[in-house]
Design goal:
six-stranded mixed beta sheet; alpha/beta; seven-stranded mixed beta sheet; D-Amino Acid Oxidase, Chain A, domain 2; globular; FAD/NAD(P)-binding domain; 11 helices; single chain; 2 domains
Length: 374
């Protein structure tokens, strides 16, 4: 393959950047457009499971994540009042691979964006695609800045609210709310906190994930029928009230809240696009195809896997794009559907007040399946 293979990636999130890295390493000439002129990243921290770590390793980013993130080997389970219930050890899915970890989202964005720029991906910010004209040999794409270019392949990686999905797919799915509001707080990591902590037995489920040598992110899952956002100046008071009954390490998070606290409020939404994921030479990846709630901590992982598998199928088909995109969908569809549906099932059981043991079994069975080779 030569640099004559031209690829456009629409969207500069984890799925888009992973796809750019994988295809650029194979020698494709890659353009990426991102509508946000500042290329901001939203969110606090990211939990990284074994399958996700495997995907990042295969993408060539594991050493960077090890340097800037935090790896752990298990977790502590508490009653909401701080009573320790159990200590768990998470096995590695492969010898030499960490079992789990966390990283701050802005740091992961920095790692991935620096990598794609270093590989020579042409990134244009504040620009997106407006029109697509396909023929047997490629796609002519017109952009919001008035320019137009021709590509062998177009990848829609523009997230859960994908404009590409809405514009080009007649059966385009609409995002739906699952009934849980999440609150995420960035806080200093106590030196003694080496593993994740999870709190049960309360209507609000909570947890703390170490994400670097210096920081953790704490989360609260609040049952809320109405996914209304609140003003920033009210978030500290609301989170303090949501954590009022919590003890143990979560009490320390509550005590650390102040005017400068970083708090991200996000309604948990999902959107699974039924087949097809492609139209001609245009393919959906990541959240544009299979946005999931975070209950299996696998959304980023399956997005990175998308990039790896797409590159592999293009190599295998010698860039017969139609054959490669069909093979990509065949390999990814059921795995990604499983993640979305199982995550939603866990959310519903949490809203029903299911005991933590039941939730643990659901998660354990799912992670066992996701440990299988992609």
């Amino acid at each position: 393959m030569t640099n004559e293979r031209r690829v456009l990636i629409i969207g500069g999130g984890i799925g888009g950047m992973a796809t750019a890295i994988a295809l650029r390493k194979d020698g494709a000439a890659v353009d990426m457009v991102e509508l946000d002129p500042e290329w901001k990243v939203y969110g606090a921290g990211l939990t990284i499971t074994g399958p996700t770590l495997r995907a990042f390793r295969d993408l060539g980013l594991l050493d960077d994540i090890a340097e800037h993130g935090f790896f752990s080997k298990g977790g502590h389970l508490y009653l909401f009042n701080g009573t320790l219930l159990s200590e768990t050890v998470s096995p590695s899915i492969e010898q030499g691979l960490p079992s789990s970890g966390g990283i701050m989202r802005p740091k992961l964005h920095e790692i991935m964006s620096e990598r794609i720029l270093g590989l020579g991906v042409n990134v244009r910010l504040g620009v997106t695609a407006t029109d697509f004209q396909q023929d047997d040999d490629g796609v002519r794409v017109t952009f919001t800045d008035g320019s137009a270019h021709r590509y062998d392949l177009v990848v829609g990686a523009d997230g859960i609210y994908s404009n590409i999905r809405a514009k080009l797919f007649e059966n385009a799915v609409q995002p739906a709310y699952c009934g849980q509001m999440s609150w995420r707080i960035v806080a200093p990591r106590p030196p003694e906190m080496e593993v994740s902590s999870f709190f049960f037995g309360h209507e609000n489920i909570a947890g703390i994930i170490p994400c670097s040598r210096d920081n953790v992110y704490a989360f609260i899952l609040q049952p809320q029928p109405n996914p209304a956002r609140v003003p920033d100046d009210q978030k500290v008071a609301i989170v303090g009230e949501l954590l009022r009954d919590f003890g143990g390490p979560m009490a320390a998070i509550r005590a650390s809240l102040g005017p400068d606290s970083s708090i991200v409020q996000r309604p948990f939404e999902f959107a699974f696009q039924e087949r097809p994921w492609r139209t001609g030479r245009i393919i959906l990846v990541g959240d544009a195809a299979h946005a999931t709630t975070p209950h299996l901590a696998s959304g980023a992982g399956i997005a990175v896997e998308d990039g790896l598998v797409l590159a592999e199928e293009l190599r295998r088909a010698d860039w017969n794009v139609g054959v490669a995109l069909d093979a990509f969908t065949d390999r990814r569809y059921e795995r990604c559907k499983f993640v979305v549906e199982t995550s939603l099932a866990i959310a519903r059981r949490e809203l029903d007040g299911a005991p933590p043991q039941e939730i643990g079994v659901m998660m354990g069975q799912a992670m066992h399946r996701l440990a299988e080779a992609i």
